[in-house]
Design goal:
This protein has 15 helices and 13 strands. It has 466 residues and is α/β, with parallel strands linked by helices.
């Protein structure tokens, strides 16, 4: 089929897609609480004739929307959760809409709507008789905290798809050949004995001492783990008064590494450190795993198909958006362009919006972060890309990223819709592309079988309310 028809469909739907994204931006909702955001996306899909299954995998704000019949089955992913305490107006100065309220600092209002726009363009093509098969939109909550996709993976939600295409807001346009860091998350709670810290300290056993010793143990461990590994922790409870020996203290620990098995090795070491800290302080340690994610399994076959469509699609930015991007970029403090190849950095530094697609720049690398899309990539061939929704050099999780998401970012959102639609169309019509993507997937996976790292009894709602 002519891909320009898909691009034209996205352009024709520009107004309502933009309005939908803005409405989600204006009412940001955090992990597992995206009730209004999910409902807006569901309503739009139902109006387009998609059959929607709500509350999948036991998650209130997770859903799956399908259109079409039979094979092939291709899918796309939508995220829509916001970040806590990131409230910001669409202005070129730091100015929260509501102090302490959430905001879309990672552009997930754009993420969900762009994927929806791509799915709708495919739906229209199936409706016209230009394509055969089934298109699926996976509505996935809580990427920013806890991760909703692991629960969906564990329930087999993605098993039907032959390939899935996803994206993420950023400041440049490129498909991805790289990976990310696998991660485990723990809560370590120590319990001791309270006493008066001056009158009878010998009667007490300090849970805070145990937390401090555990953190010291982690610091000494760092020399002996791979250089790429990352270990982070915070003390979430440490006592209420300095003259009282704390009977309870808690810390949270994240363990990251490019390989899942290395994460598990380091995680076991952290458990042993917690036990040792408890022994030294005569306290009790309760180590609870609260989350776990896989690394991303790259798929160069899909990355190349995405890149071809990025080169073909127009980036629909307006003069007004460019003017806002210029002003917003001027507020960046020492922007970094290290994420792209050296030959493009000068052009990026001189651009308000760096919109020319560049070649994949992350082959063989792991981004210094984690995502629950990693778990999806071990179940089905997954193609990913970045689209420019922020001024060049902007960091995610910044107030500038939030400010860009209301209007400026919708240009990259529409571009992403076009790329998603075109790549899913390729997959629907090209048997050899699907077979090659599957063959690469099986080769990279090898004999390693996916085992969901999320504890069987993990409750996402308990996690966010603790």
């Amino acid at each position: 089929m002519d891909k320009q028809d898909l691009f034209d469909t996205v352009e024709a739907e520009r107004d309502w897609l933009t309005d939908l994204s803005r409405s989600i931006w204006a009412n940001p909702e955090v992990a597992f609480k995206e009730y209004d955001s999910a409902e807006k996306l569901i309503s739009a899909l139902e109006e387009e004739g998609f059959e929607v299954e709500r509350g999948v995998a036991g998650l209130d704000t997770a859903f799956v929307a399908r259109y079409g019949e039979g094979d092939p089955v291709v899918g796309t992913i939508g995220e829509y959760d916001a970040l806590p305490a990131m409230s910001q107006q669409a202005k070129t100065e730091r100015d929260p809409i509501e102090e302490g309220a959430p905001g879309h600092g990672c552009g997930h209002n754009l993420f969900g709507v762009a994927s929806l726009g791509g799915a709708v363009a495919i739906k229209r093509a199936i409706e016209r008789g230009d394509l055969d098969g089934t298109v699926v939109f996976y509505g996935t909550p809580a990427e920013e905290a806890g991760g909703g996709k692991m629960y969906m993976v564990r329930e087999g939600v993605f098993d039907e798809a032959e390939a899935v295409i996803s994206w993420h807001p950023g400041w440049y346009n490129a498909s991805s050949r790289g990976s990310c860091l696998a991660v485990d998350a723990f809560e370590i709670a120590f319990e001791g004995e309270t006493s008066h810290a001056a009158a009878s300290p010998e009667s007490g056993r300090s849970a805070l001492d145990a937390v401090q010793l555990a953190s010291t143990g982690i610091e000494y461990m760092r020399e002996h783990v791979p250089e790429e590994a990352r270990i982070h922790y915070v003390i979430t409870e440490g006592g209420s008064a300095p003259n009282v020996v704390p009977a309870e203290a808690t810390m949270e620990v994240l363990v990251r590494s490019p390989e899942r098995d290395e994460v598990e090795r380091i995680s076991e070491w952290v458990r042993e450190i917690a036990k040792g800290a408890a022994t030294m302080t005569q306290t009790e340690a309760d180590v609870t795993k609260i989350s776990g994610l896989y690394d991303l399994l790259p798929n160069h076959t899909l990355a190349d198909a995405i890149q071809e469509n990025m080169d073909a699609a127009e980036f629909p930015i307006t003069d007004e958006q460019l003017a806002f991007a210029e002003e917003l970029k001027a507020t960046l403090d020492s922007p970094s362009y290290d994420r792209i190849p050296k030959e493009h950095r000068e052009a990026a530094a001189e651009s308000a919006m760096f919109t020319d697609p560049i070649e994949p720049n992350d082959e063989g690398e792991s981004i210094p972060g984690s995502t629950d899309e990693g778990d999806v990539s071990w179940i089905v061939p997954l193609g990913r890309f970045s689209a420019a929704t922020w001024p060049a050099g902007t960091s995610a999780h910044s107030w500038q990223a939030v400010a860009a998401g209301e209007d400026l970012g919708t240009a990259g959102m529409l571009f992403a819709s076009k790329v998603i639609a075109a790549t899913m169309a390729d997959l629907l019509v090209d048997d050899e592309l699907r077979a090659a993507a599957r063959e690469e997937f099986e080769t990279r996976k090898g004999e390693e079988e996916y085992e969901c790292p999320m504890p069987e009894n993990a409750d996402p709602y308990q996690l966010i309310n603790r």
